[in-house]
Design brief:
- The complex is a heterodimer.
- Chain A is an all-alpha fold.
- Helix content of chain A is 75%, strand content 0%.
- Chain A has two domains: 110 residues, NADH-ubiquinone/plastoquinone oxidoreductase chain 6, subunit NuoJ (Four Helix Bundle (Hemerythrin (Met), subunit A)), CATH 1.20.120.1200; 42 residues.
- In chain A, helix 1 runs antiparallel to helix 2 and helix 2 packs antiparallel against helix 3.
- Chain A starts with a helix and ends with a helix.
- Chain B is mostly helical.
- Chain B has a single domain, classed as Orthogonal Bundle (Helix Hairpins), CATH 1.10.287.3510.
- The termini of chain B are far apart.
- Classes of the chains: A mainly alpha, B mainly alpha.
- Chains A and B meet through helix 1, helix 2, helix 3, helix 5 and helix 6 of A and helix 1, helix 2 and helix 3 of B.
């Protein structure tokens, strides 16, 4: 068991990565720089998963997001000419209204979290008997028994997405 | 300093959600808007995993896997649409794509 202060320090380091990367993603003028900041943010999220003993999701996050989606994004950025877009105004005309709306939502969420703070105290993790199975085995058990139908539907969704994106990006059908 | 609990993860997740929302609402570049949507989906996943860990229930992580699947499908189709759009309109700025606007 790691000491508490190590846990706390790791949490704040990963949070800094997540939030700093996210802020850079939405403020950078250059889209490639945005994509690199997004990679930093997603790696921070992977670290947060690891801190919560979700090892399988940690691996999926790195392989799929950092390795898959981000390469797709970078390919599209190279394919689409963004040089001219980087010269122009980056924020649209309604940014003040949008920021006000988000500030209102932030106040609501903050109030909810502040008032409900006591409700988030759950039982100590030591209360359960440690399972002999690892995280991946437990996930696979649930995924292939209880959630078999959603799993198969997700595969159909991916097939539809593959066909759809190929048809969308084709020059002539 | 108190030990890190579910509350800390929820604060982190709501902050990430709000940053993503600001990105979707204020940026003009379609590529950055798609990236902001990925940020929002990641905020949801942090929330699901935090509750899954706190309640000792694996269902939250299963749901996170399905959210990641949807994010992949969304990114693939979205970027396909973006390529088709750029081929036809020669722009990636959302306020110049106003064909359906009256």
């Amino acid at each position: 068991m790691t000491p508490t202060y190590v846990n706390t320090a790791l949490f704040y380091i990963f949070s800094l990565l997540v939030l700093g990367g996210a802020i850079l993603t939405i403020t950078c003028r250059n889209a490639v720089r945005s994509a690199i900041s997004l990679i930093v943010s997603l790696l921070g999220v992977a670290g947060i998963y690891l801190m919560q003993q979700a090892e399988f999701l940690f691996a999926v996050q790195i392989v799929l997001y950092v390795g898959g989606i981000m390469v797709l994004f970078l390919f599209v950025i190279m394919l689409v000419n963004l040089d001219q877009a980087a010269m122009e105004r980056q924020f649209n005309r309604h940014w003040l209204v949008a920021l006000t709306a988000v500030a209102v939502v932030a106040a609501e969420v903050g109030y909810f979290l502040y008032r409900g703070k006591a409700a988030f105290q759950f039982a100590e993790p030591a209360a359960v008997a440690p399972s002999a199975l690892g995280n991946t085995e437990v996930l696979a058990d649930a995924l292939f028994s209880e959630y078999l139908l959603p799993f198969e539907i997700a595969s159909i969704l991916l097939l539809v997405a593959v066909i759809g994106s190929v048809i969308m990006a084709k020059k002539r059908i | 300093m108190s030990p890190i609990g579910t509350f800390h993860y929820l604060v982190l997740s709501s902050a990430l959600l709000l940053i993503g929302t600001v990105g979707v609402l204020t940026r003009r570049n379609v590529v950055v808007i798609l990236m902001s949507i990925e940020l929002i989906l990641n905020a949801v996943n942090i929330n699901l995993v935090a509750f899954s860990q706190a309640l000792h229930n694996i269902d939250g992580q299963i749901f996170a896997i399905f959210v990641i699947t949807d994010a992949v499908a969304e990114a693939a189709v979205g970027l396909g649409i973006l390529i088709a759009l750029f081929r036809n309109k020669e722009t990636v700025l959302v306020d110049e794509i106003d064909l359906l606007k009256w």
